[in-house]
Amino acid sequence: LGAEERKNLQAFVEGGKGVIVLHHAIANYNGWPWWYEQVVGGRYLLKGEAGRPASTYQHDLDLSARATERHPITAGASPLYIRDELYKGMWISKDVKVLMRTEHPAGDGPLVWVSPYGKSRVAVVLLGHDRAAHEHAGFRALVRNAIVWAAGK
After folding, report:
1. How far is CA 6 from the centre of its chain?
2. What are the distances in angstroms from CA 107 to CA 86, 93, 131, 138?
3. What is the pTM of this model?
4. Residue pair 55/44 in contact by the 8 Å Cβ criterion
């Protein structure tokens, strides 16, 4: 994003508008610390930096995910059994509230979380790589629930 677009996005988020970060979007705006540290609470490392290797991904994995606590975003979507892509080696803030996780060794664990950003409702859903995931009823429930929650409904 250019400077004007960043300013507009920041004003949107600081104005209390909800944000949903889906799957590949975890790799967006890697050079904008405000976005990935404060708003998203996580970041896929496109390349190694500061002694950390680049994050990795693996396609077409059969995985299970379970809610870690009760929350409107995970209502009716846990447990979830899905074929999807997982990321490993991401930076995830210790301050996020993890709502759903997997124990699959190809992933970091957290799959759905709420950002600690206090000015807006921000939800991250790392699932959703391809058509099969998008057609999965559990994934659809997560996204719908996240949208409703982020909208403050």
Report:
1. 20
2. 5, 16, 20, 19
3. 0.95
4. yes
CA pair distance 56, 150, nearest whole angstrom: 28
User: How far apart (Å, rounded) are the C-alpha atoms in residues 41 and 34?
Assistant: 10
Residues 8 and 62 sit within 8 Å (Cβ to Cβ): no
Per-residue pLDDT of the chain (153 residues; tens, 9 = 90+): 899 999 999 999 999 999 999 999 999 999 999 999 999 999 999 999 989 999 999 999 999 999 999 999 999 998 999 999 999 999 999 999 999 999 999 999 999 999 999 999 999 999 999 999 999 999 999 999 999 999 998
Peptide bond before residue 33 is cis, with ω within 30 degrees of 0: no
What sign does the dihedral 96-122-124-76 (CA atoms) show? positive
Q: Are 120 and 151 in contact (CB under 8 A)?
A: no
Q: How many CB atoms are located within 10 Å of the residue 35 CB?
A: 20
Residues, the chain = 153
CA distances for 7 relative to 24, 35, 98, angstroms: 22, 11, 28
